[in-house]
From TrEMBL:
<dbReference type="InterPro" id="IPR000515">
    <property type="entry name" value="MetI-like"/>
</dbReference>
<keyword id="KW-0812">Transmembrane</keyword>
<comment type="similarity">
    <text>Belongs to the binding-protein-dependent transport system permease family. HisMQ subfamily.</text>
</comment>
<dbReference type="InterPro" id="IPR010065">
    <property type="entry name" value="AA_ABC_transptr_permease_3TM"/>
</dbReference>
<feature type="transmembrane region" description="Helical">
    <location>
        <begin position="20"/>
        <end position="44"/>
    </location>
</feature>
<feature type="transmembrane region" description="Helical">
    <location>
        <begin position="187"/>
        <end position="206"/>
    </location>
</feature>
<dbReference type="InterPro" id="IPR035906">
    <property type="entry name" value="MetI-like_sf"/>
</dbReference>
<feature type="transmembrane region" description="Helical">
    <location>
        <begin position="87"/>
        <end position="106"/>
    </location>
</feature>
<keyword id="KW-1003">Cell membrane</keyword>
<keyword id="KW-0472">Membrane</keyword>
<keyword id="KW-0029">Amino-acid transport</keyword>
<keyword id="KW-0813">Transport</keyword>
<feature type="transmembrane region" description="Helical">
    <location>
        <begin position="148"/>
        <end position="167"/>
    </location>
</feature>
<keyword id="KW-1133">Transmembrane helix</keyword>
<dbReference type="Pfam" id="PF00528">
    <property type="entry name" value="BPD_transp_1"/>
</dbReference>
<dbReference type="InterPro" id="IPR043429">
    <property type="entry name" value="ArtM/GltK/GlnP/TcyL/YhdX-like"/>
</dbReference>
<feature type="domain" description="ABC transmembrane type-1">
    <location>
        <begin position="18"/>
        <end position="206"/>
    </location>
</feature>
Length: 221
């Protein structure tokens, strides 16, 4: 029989796990977006060396399982004398891995910007940096917000893997509670519902941002 009292009894522990999940997610979203922007600029750079680095970065981190990357940082680097705590490991690994997906999406969006728009800006004597900052990036972000939002939703779900490196985020906390109470059905059912509600709420926020950006763009025209 379903026992909801288990969830109520351990609500404090669940809240602590949620706080860690939220902190890791926010920091990783910021980090991955910054990494994505940097790698995207490398991909569209006029430098062949930067181009190779950018595309190589994307292909490399998109083709390595995330759990392998986490294990390398947490268990592998200590062999070289580099010790990183579980929280920092999660933020670092997620930022580096998800940054590759953000970079690829941004690169595609930038390269899809109408050449006539760029040429018109160049005809006014605008510098390359100004054109990117004022024209290309706003258009690229407007068109890429949905796919990037999907990547960020997946990032939040991927934080559950960090329980494998002793980080007691939401999933790690649920595993401990399930082991203590011998009530895995209630614990993991709550966890399932929580992730579902969390990601659905985020998808609604992303849709709202997408509509707002497109509405402003159309008004600007």
């Amino acid at each position: 029989m379903f026992d909801i009292s288990i969830i109520a009894k351990y609500s404090g522990a669940f809240l602590d796990g949620f706080a860690i999940t939220a902190a890791v997610s926010v920091m990783s979203i910021l980090g991955s977006f910054i990494v994505g922007l940097g790698v995207m600029f490398a991909c569209v750079s006029q430098s062949k060396a930067l181009n190779k680095f950018g595309y190589g970065y994307i292909e490399c981190f998109r083709n390595i399982p995330f759990i392998v990357q986490v294990f390398f940082v947490f268990y592998g680097l200590p062999e070289l004398g580099v010790f990183i705590d579980p929280y920092t490991t999660g933020v670092l690994a997620l930022s580096v891995a998800v940054g590759a997906y953000c970079a690829d999406i941004l690169r595609a969006s930038v390269q899809q910007v109408d050449r006539e728009v760029i040429e018109a800006a160049q005809s006014f004597g605008l510098e390359r940096k100004t054109i990117y900052r004022k024209i290309i990036l706003p258009i690229a972000l407007r068109t890429s917000i949905r796919p990037i939002g999907s990547v960020f939703i997946n990032l939040i779900l991927t934080t559950s893997i960090l329980s494998t490196v002793t980080l007691n985020e939401l999933t790690g906390t649920a595993k401990i509670i399930a082991a203590e109470t011998f009530r895995p059905f209630e614990v993991y059912f709550f966890l399932l519902l929580f992730y579902c509600v969390l990601t659905y709420a985020l998808s609604l926020i992303i849709s709202g941002i997408h509509r707002k950006l497109n509405r402003q763009f159309l008004v600007g025209e």
